[in-house]
Amino acid sequence: MKREEVIMDIRSMQYYLAVVREGTISGAAEVLHVAQPSLSRQMKDLEEELGISLFERGNRKITLTEEGMVLRRRAEEMVRLMQMTKKRSPRSKTISPVPCVSVPENLVPFTTFPVQQALSHRNIRIYAFRSPAEIHKI
Q1: How far apart are the C-alpha atoms of 109 and 106, rounded to whole Å?
Q2: 42 lies in a domain?
Q3: How confident is the model over 26-41, as pLDDT tens digits?
Q4: Is 63 helix (H, G, I), strand (E, B) or coil?
Q5: Domain count along the chain
Q6: Each residue's pLDDT tens digit, 59-94
Q7: How deeply is 15 buried, as exposed, middle or buried, from its count of CB atoms within 10 A (0-12, 13-18, 19+)?
Q8: pTM
């Protein structure tokens, strides 16, 4: 990633939240299984990119600045939204077959509703056809 590019991505937000949660960069680095100097550099890069100071660095512990508290809330929201999106993605779901029912066109008014009622708990596709030859097209 080039220095000019945006570095504020989900991973950097997760790392930032780990630093906030642990109270120290070294503690967060240990939890995240990353090198402390690397994590420290990422936090400095994040501050530079945003043009704000996120932490008040003191004796061993860090405290958040006002801007740091704002970013914490936003980062938590970003991570939460990403997790929700991942849960809803097709990859996170098991593939379940969708039953298909073929019905002669003249019987659709009489059969569609009862079939939908009987299988209301399932996703179902109903195909209407005019002639037996059309069944093979489905």
Answers
A1: 7
A2: yes
A3: 999 999 999 999 999 9
A4: strand
A5: 2
A6: 778 899 999 999 999 999 998 988 888 887 666 556
A7: buried
A8: 0.59
